[in-house]
Amino acid sequence: MARIRDQVQMMVSAVLVLYMDLFMIGGYGAYALRDLYAAHFSPYDWRMELAMFGSLVVFLMVLNTMIMGRLGLYNDRRESSYAMLAGKVVLALLMDFTLVGAVAFNLKIGSLSRLFLLFYCGLMIVIFLVERWLLE
Fold it and tell me: Which residues neighbour 101 within 8 Å (Cβ) at sequence distance 6 or greater?
């Protein structure tokens, strides 16, 4: 019994490492999309400081791990349907980015683009839903 529990714990750890990588990929993708948008549709030159970008990605990784854990998305039990699973994943990501927006607003961080956050949230929803679909 302990051996199965160890295997489950190892799989959960592997999924957490995968999610960290996916958050980095999603962040770079959102940055590229926001930069592309600024180059073609905006009169302003948009850039985000590297420290801001790095701290945002790390903050989102930690926050997402806590929220997904609370929603039971790291349990060894499966959801009854993919729709239930997808709903929980989307809820977790929307909670993540809503909290990031609230923190940025309260701390008056003006350099954090709302469009960047929208691109980032959208990409992460697509990436996580595809990843969960592939793991099913």
Answer: 114, 117
What totals of helices (H) and strands (E) does the chain contain, helices first?
4, 0
Query: From the CB of residue 26, how many other CB atoms can be counted at a distance below 10 Å?
Result: 23
Phi and psi, residue 39, nearest 5° = -70, -30
Cα distance between residue 94 and residue 116, in whole Å: 14
- Total-model pTM: 0.85
Q: Model confidence over 121-136: pLDDT tens digits?
A: 999 999 999 988 887 7
Helix (H) or strand (E) holding 73: none
b/e per residue, 68-106, with b = 16+ CB within 10 A? Answer: beeeebbeeeebeeeeebbebbeebbebbbeebeeebee
